[in-house]
Design a protein that fits this description.
The protein is an all-beta fold. Helix content is 1%, strand content 47%. The strands form seven sheets. Strands 7, 8, 9, 10, 11, 12, 13 and 14 form an eight-stranded antiparallel beta sheet that branches. Strands 1, 2, 19, 22, 23 and 24 form a six-stranded antiparallel beta sheet that branches. It has a four-stranded antiparallel beta sheet with strand order 4-3-17-18, with no helix packed on it. The radius of gyration is 25 Å and the shape is globular.
Length: 425
């Protein structure tokens, strides 16, 4: 059989599309910026929640120990709206702690691995996790600091993240005088596949709020900005934070229709605020929002899809609507020339018309194999689970219903993940 493709790349392969489709979409965080909105690049889906639905959030991925405070609050022309405020307490005795000398703290919006409760750690001490200290002998994190939290009701609570043991957070809170003490647990396993578990003091319960798949969140957060020489003020801003496993690079002074993302392959960052808030600015002369038309962002999703994004409009607090253009550029996959299962993978004919044949040779049986077809918009349009034995196999796919364009066939055999490009004429 003639080999149409060979897997010869040592580190990574990036399949560029010969034809690209740009889609315009709108994402809203509501009038007055009152919502926190998750956005999925592949299908353009969004999921919105009012800022008031949660107060603190716990990292539930793997070995995560992050704890965040909800900085989201709407905008009002008539005065400040109620917000959640977190403070580090000076006292380390839960029975006697009060508001004396407390210092307000914020999330640093750098990584989903650290929130405000972690931000107070001592730099240079790898065992200090902020709210607690890690004991390598027991593999446990136990409390070392206390906090004061002011809720949107203006109530103050004293709060202690007591421990993280075997994937279970235990925390307690009470009124400042010690009354109404509550102890809660959050079990990471109850939030499989999610990055954060959200807790509401009003509801007294943990909540699963994240969609199953998201790449960015449009929201409100606080960040320090310069207010003059030597002066820094914490500002509440409207912006975009990238999701877990998402990398972003900002390209300025470019022609959006001709810029090549391959010129920026070494500049990606997982910092949450690469998109951030400064893709828009308010012109006090015209009282309008302005956007740089020579700026684009390249976004690499956790699944390895590369998108180009350009913001083209922002309607401000009247609607909270942002308008963006997105273009699916490529699907990347890390390939290593040593595979546990796959000997070779080929597909033919290419271009295809009515049928596509995918041939592969397995050197050992794999319990579960998956084939996905990704369209020119980056959307997964077909998923097929394959039962395999070792040896040579050919899959016959009917592609007569697919419109002309460039597609990707993504195959996963155990830990082997391979991607092939084909076109439909």
């Amino acid at each position: 059989m003639k080999t149409i493709f060979t897997l010869t790349f040592l580190f990574s392969v990036c399949f560029m599309m010969s034809a690209q489709t740009t889609v315009t979409e709108q994402v809203s965080i509501g009038p007055g910026y009152n919502q926190h909105t998750y956005y999925n690049l592949e299908d353009g889906s969004t999921l919105s929640y009012d800022h008031t639905i949660w107060d603190i959030a716990f990292g539930v991925e793997g070995q995560s120990f992050s704890v965040f405070v909800n900085e989201g609050v709407g905008s009002s022309m008539s005065g400040a709206l109620p917000e959640v405020a977190l403070f580090e307490a000076l006292d380390t005795d839960f029975a006697t702690v009060d508001t004396a000398g407390m210092l307000r703290i914020y999330n640093d919006e750098v990584s989903w691995a650290e929130g405000a409760f972690n931000h107070v750690k001592v730099d240079g001490d790898p065992l200090d996790l902020g709210w607690g200290s890690y004991d390598p002998r027991s593999n446990q994190v136990n409390s070392t600091r206390l906090f004061i939290i002011k809720l949107r009701t203006d109530e103050f609570k004293k709060l202690e993240i007591q421990s993280l043991i075997s994937g279970v957070y235990t925390f307690r809170y009470a009124d400042l005088d010690g009354s109404n003490e509550v102890t809660e647990t959050i079990v990471k396993a109850d939030f499989a596949g999610k990055s954060l578990a959200y807790y509401s003091f009003e509801k007294g319960e943990a909540q699963d709020l994240e969609p199953d798949s998201w790449d960015m969140v449009f929201t409100r957060y606080t960040t320090p900005l310069s207010a003059g020489p030597g002066v820094t003020i914490d500002y509440l801003l409207t912006g975009v934070l990238s999701g877990v496993g998402v990398d972003v690079v900002q390209a300025d002074g470019v022609q959006p229709l001709s810029v090549d993302h391959e010129d920026y392959v070494n500049d990606y960052s997982d910092t949450l605020t690469i998109i951030g808030h400064d893709w828009k600015s308010f012109d006090l002369g015209t009282f309008q929002w302005t956007l740089p038309m020579d700026r684009v962002y390249f976004v690499k999703t956790a699944a390895g899809a590369i998108w180009q994004i350009r913001f083209i409009d922002f309607e401000g607090s009247s609607t909270g609507v942002s308008t963006l253009e997105k273009t699916f550029l490529a699907q990347t996959t890390s390939l290593n020339n040593t595979y546990e299962y796959a000997e070779s993978v080929d597909l033919f004919p290419n271009p295809a018309h009515d049928e596509l044949h995918i041939a592969y040779d397995l050197k050992s049986k794999v319990s579960q194999a998956t084939l996905q077809i990704v369209n020119p918009l980056g959307q997964t349009i077909s998923t097929r689970v394959i039962d395999n034995t070792e040896g040579f196999h050919v899959l016959d796919l009917n592609v007569s219903h697919l419109p002309a364009g460039v597609y990707h066939a993504s195959l996963q055999f155990g830990n082997d993940h391979l991607s092939k490009t084909f076109s439909i004429k």
